[in-house]
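Take a look at this chain, tokens included, and explain the fold to me:
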Amino acid sequence: MIFAAAVLTGITLIGPFTGTQSESFENANPTVNTQCVTNRTFNNTADICTPNHLGCLVTTAWTTPACTQYPQSGSWFFGNALHGALDNFTEITFDQPVVRFGGMFSKNVTYPAGDISFYSEDGTLLATLPINLPGGCAWVWNGWDAGTQPPFKTIVLEGNFDSPILLDGLQATVASASPGVDTCFPGTGARVSCPCNNPPSEIGRGCDNSSSTGGARLSSSGNASLAADTLSLTTSGQKPTGTSVLLQGNVDLTNGIVFGQGVRCAGGVVKRLYVQAAANGSIHVPGAGQTSIHVRSAAHGDPLSAGASRWYAVFYRDSTVLGGCPSLSTFNITQTQLVDWGA
């Protein structure tokens, strides 16, 4: 796991909820000093591990000089057994990203507190937030909602002073399926920052524009299949009107480059697949009567094959230049969607 600085967060605390998947560790026995919990977790949709350490423990009780911890419910609970080990943390990785995560947390030591870090599907650190952990074997609820940010693919838990964090009664809500993966978040990790003193209002958007929408966002739906291509791409948060162009690249520009008033990460062989006029700050492609995306790509000299990856973004006209940027910077761009094409 590469740790980077998160710059914005729309993640909010939430009360108890019932997710689409749950984990109470009743089927994880035996797990004693292993790197990952036995039998996977969340109904075989996630892994809970202690990377580079044999720290996973699922037990019925755990006694320390401070107290004895028992399950919050049922017969078993989880703990990271490597108290004080260097670079010790618990990592939860979901097969599909989740928009909500929560459960019962505890510590069987006297000193409290810990942190939770959320990572998007492309590995961007969305936020690191404190966990309510009073210590002393007291189970307390903690829960988080992604809001309109990208959902969580990986969650990392670290107790203060590398102390163990205990878990039981976990809940997670899986995000709606999308053929595209959000990426290219300005000012996060290695990505360059927005050039015109115009950061997005939250991670998951492009740089802010002169309409102060917080930045434009690109989303995807349908099926990215060469045999049955129904992939469609939709923007929101653009200027209310203006010419917009869907770009397709075959390389991710790791750092991104300044592009008008925004940051572009779709690179390599870049094709302009569709040109549309925005209405109410949005476009949708393919539009009525337009050919599918893979057909349009081939017609522009970039035929796709099964397994091909392409990066998509929409740049749009914004004639009001912000933050002292060059006068010719009369355009902006969404974040990027990575799409892996199937047969």
Residues 1-7 have pLDDT under 50 and may be disordered. Residues 12-174 form a domain with the Jelly Rolls fold (CATH 2.60.120.200). The two ends are 31 Å apart (CA to CA). DSSP finds one helix and 25 strands in the chain.
